[in-house]
Amino acid sequence: AQKVTQAQTEISVVEKEDVTLDCVYETRDTTYYLFWYKQPPSGELVFLIRRNSFDEQNEISGRYSWNFQKSTSSFNFTITASQVVDSAVYFCALRRSGGYQKVTFGTGTKLQVIP
Amino acid sequence: DTEVTQTPKHLVMGMTNKKSLKCEQHMGHRAMYWYKQKAKKPPELMFVYSYEKLSINESVPSRFSPECPNSSLLNLHLHALQPEDSALYLCASSQGDSKSTDTQYFGPGTRLTVL
Question: Is B34 in a helix, a strand, or coil?
């Protein structure tokens, strides 16, 4: 069975602070994919990043960075110098290899950035 | 262009009404999905269509009836819904190729209220 745990239900930070959203996953598969999605109040799930299980290189995209550690089954997401527009619910997700596989979502972390 | 469109944005219906939700994508994706999302919960998979054939039905009640008229369109027909069916309904699409990394891209959703 696959499972994604986002232990932080809600986080509040003041604008310009850095914030890390935690994600821990469980799977018996050797090949799998991890994702982060952002869901602003409007409702649309916005794809942020995909990471393959065999690629542990960390990634940086502007103010966003992701730390993938297979040894601890974690895929954490850091926002540097947070902005009000970052306020949203963030979902970590896990999918098996292969086409149209079911995605297992975590319960989400609601981030509020206070101006 | 990673755009999935959904209509309507909002829908209010009575328990005896029949209505349809529509989803469209022009990315050449061959897999399309319906998800249901209740407030403060992650999305839950309802149906998956692959190459216009229903591939996954997550034991969804028959009052929800999906239809895939062609590779770009996905409908969800609603009939005799219950108030507990009120939720955000999200459509997604992905390449659907078993060799691909198959990222799902989501539409903005339809907020459904059943009175």
Answer: strand
Residue A59's pLDDT is what? Answer: 86
Quick one: which H or E segment has residue A24? strand A24-26
Q: Could you say which of B88, B99, B102 has the minimum Cβ distance to residue A43?
A: B88
User: What pLDDT does B79 receive?
Assistant: 94
d(CA B49, CA B28): 14
Cβ pair A100:B55 closer than 8 A: yes
Residue type at position A49: I
Nearest 5°: the CA angle B38, B43, B49 is 125
As a three-state string, the secondary structure of A31-92 is CEEEEEEEECCCCCCEEEEEEECCCCCCEEECCEEEEEEHHHCEEEEEECCCCHHHCEEEEE
Binary contact (B56, A100; C-beta < 8 A): yes
Residue B68: pLDDT band (50, 70, 90) is very high
Question: What six digits make up the tokens of A53?
Answer: 């299980």
